[in-house]
Amino acid sequence: MIGGPDDADGSSPRRPRWLRAAAWAALVVAAVAIRLPHLTESLWYDEVWRTRVVLRPGNLESLLLHDVHNPLYNAFMYAWISVIGDSEFSIRLPSLLFGLASITVLYRWMHARFGPGPARLAAALLLVSPVHAWYSCEAKNNMLVMLLGILAVVQTDALLTKGRWTDAFGAAIWSALGLLTSWQAGLVVIPAWIGGAVALLSADRSTPQSRAAAARRLKLLGGSILIALVMLSPLLIFKAEHVDELSRWYLAAPDLARIAELLFIWYPTGNALVLIRAAKWLLWIGIYGAVVGPALVLGCLALRRSATGRLVLACLWTPIVGLLLAWAAYAAAGETGPHVYQDRNMLVVFPWFICAIALGATQAGVLRPPLAGVLVALGLASSLAAVTWRADKSTVMNPNPDWRSAAAFIRESASTGDPPIIASCCPLLPLEYYSTPGKLVELNWQHDTFRDVQNLRRQRPGAPVFFINNPFWFGYPPHAIHLLEAGLGHPTRSDFLGLQVYRFAPLNAAHQGPLER
Question: How far is CA 503 from CA 411, 454, 494, 495, in A?
């Protein structure tokens, strides 16, 4: 067991029970407060895919087999909404439960392996984390992937330490389920396999008993990997035949700058506390790194002391270093790739980062209380920022526009007369979920939007036309919006958490501006 310096069991100095209970109660209240706004906001495009608008019987086979995401989460959500319904809260509830379960599992495992002090701090950091809060309230597969990744690593650790066939079978099940949910699970499942094999191959073999134990556990690990691969084989074969469906145009290259931002800005603060300009990112890496860096270094040094700790290090650093090496190899060859990086794809690695800094903070000697306190305060302040003064800015990811209010505005504004036409260069799927009346038209953002909107007005001169601009997704820059407004008769504009809704009066009742630019 690796613990803090204060007690033999790694726990903090004894405090009154009521004080500890009060601290945890305050922490839970804060965790609820920072999650509630995310749970109750309107759905955005990706979340609507987990409703009956998309996840319906006639569309199910195509979605399960040909979606860029692996099928387990969508299959689960189809069963879920068939029983529970597809309200905003109900489709987000599984992610909340998966997120809470991930904290519980990691806490219990860390308590057994590293002591109560690091386990409590890790749980506290996850409870107030803006990254964990965001994705545990979003109807996507991220929290399920995180939970299954944790379970796979924990069960692999049990296999290595106890050598039971039940642990081998459990590790295979959790690993396969994680990969059936998303290939992102491989970022920790594969390092756990490799780290486990390395640990067993380098284990003490000084006696016949130790050699036999290592050999038996190595066979169990091999059997576990084989079982997982057999379970995955149908999906692997199918995806290999449809590899073109796995590409995503919006992914980035995992260069050193992005990895540094991941470790010192996105993981600890969700990029939420302050607006970091492009020219200032190195400064803020230094500021946040002054807090996170020492905890991370101390944690990694402490993790080297045990086989379980080295397994954590494998799950933390193998995917990060592997992505950097792949990028460096491509760059050395003069290639422009690989474009495989996205912050949220690294969410499965996040628990092991938290494990490392929580353990490191408990190794900081006299700096332990202030370092732990600053880490928790940094996460909590960032989470509060993400749901208050920075709710309409890009933080953990782009802000969730208020499609619900926009749909209500369109319904009220077009309550009489011809059904409206709603056009946008961004996907309008959320308006289908909110039963917005009228004709939805998704424009090609590379076309002449001015001309496209004017043509829609000509087609139905008696209908009001709404144009929606989402600055964070296929958005128009301010100068282009100004030209659009001036050329089309200065429509009225309403904003809904970054969503800009322009209303044009029916053409036969409005002053006709120029039809050509």
Answer: 12, 13, 8, 11
* Joined tokens for residue 277: 């300009």
Residue 484 contacts residue 477 (beta carbons within 8 Å)? no
Can you tell me the distance from the alpha carbon of 66 to that of 50, in angstroms, rounded to the nearest whole number? 15
SS3 state at 13: coil
- With contact defined as beta carbons under 8 Å apart, do 11 and 115 qualify? yes
Q: Tell me, yes or no, if the pTM score tops 0.85.
A: yes
97, exposed or middle or buried, with CB in 10 Å at 0-12, 13-18, 19+?
middle
Vertex 333: Cα angle to 327 and 337 (nearest 5): 35
Please give the DSSP secondary-structure letter assigned to residue 43. P
pLDDT tens for 310-319 read 999 999 999 9
Quick one: tokens of 427? Answer: 């996907």
Other residues' Cβ atoms within 10 Å of the Cβ of residue 82: 12
Q: How many CB atoms lie within 10 A of CB 137?
A: 23
Peptide bond into 16 cis (omega under 30): no
Q: Find residue 424's DSSP bridge partners.
A: 442, 468
| Alpha helices, H only, 41-115 | 45-48, 57-66, 71-84, 88-114
**Ranges of the chain with pLDDT below 50:** 4-12, 510-517
Tell me the pLDDT tens digit for each residue of 194-243: 999 999 998 888 888 888 999 999 999 999 999 999 999 999 999 999 88
Closest C-alpha among 409, 447, 512 to residue 42: 409
The side-by-side arrangement of strands in the sheet containing 439-442 is 439-442, 421-424, 465-469, 499-504, 492-496
- Torsion angles phi and psi, residue 265, rounded to 5: -120, -55
Q: Considering only CA atoms, which of 290, 407, 310 is closest in space to residue 42?
A: 407
Q: Which of 246, 474, 254 is nearest to 342 (CA)?
A: 254
Residue 498 in contact with residue 401, Cβ under 8 Å? yes
Q: Which regions of 439-509 does DSSP assign to beta strands (E)?
A: 439-442, 465-469, 492-496, 499-504
Question: In this structure, what token pair is assigned to residue 510?
Answer: 């409005």
From residue 64, alpha-carbon distances to 21, 68, 69, 95, 427 in Å are: 45, 9, 8, 19, 21
